[in-house]
Amino acid sequence: MLSALSNAALSATRSRAPMAARSLSSSAIASKDFVQEIYIKELKAYKAPAKSADAHKGQVRDFHAPKAPQAPSVSTSDISSELDAYSKSEPDVAEASASSSSSGSLLESHEDVNAWLEEAKKPVVKEHH
């Protein structure tokens, strides 16, 4: 009941009060942007200073081609004597023995890895709590 009375009172006040409406215009007001006009005018009036022909002198070095390399001077008798000495030399025996001992250590490490893999294949027993 109270809501019916309040609705009636609201409708009565709405009908008596004049509606003030503001009209909106969709066209933009044409106004000049003075700052933009001054900026464009200054840009158009700007003239870049002319560069002199010698402006690059302090910035760029003159190119000088490097000297051609000279071939090393080696006499053919020295080369032939060095080749003869190389062909007569015997290879070091110590390197061969070192390689045989390293292959033995590889076999041992291979066996160690196999033992570790066999250990890893075993089932893991978990304790129940």
From TrEMBL:
Q: Name one GO molecular function term.
A: proton-transporting ATP synthase activity, rotational mechanism
Low complexity composition bias: residue spans? 94-107
The UniProt annotation puts the region (Disordered) at 50-110
Organism domain of life? Eukaryota
Signal peptide (from-to): none
Question: What PANTHER family does the entry give?
Answer: ATP SYNTHASE SUBUNIT H, MITOCHONDRIAL (PTHR28207)
Q: What is this protein called?
A: ATPeFH, ATP14
Indicate, by first and last residue, each region the UniProt record lists as having compositional bias (Basic and acidic residues): 53-65
Pfam families reported for this sequence = ATP_sub_h
InterPro entries, alphabetized = ATP_synth_F0_suH
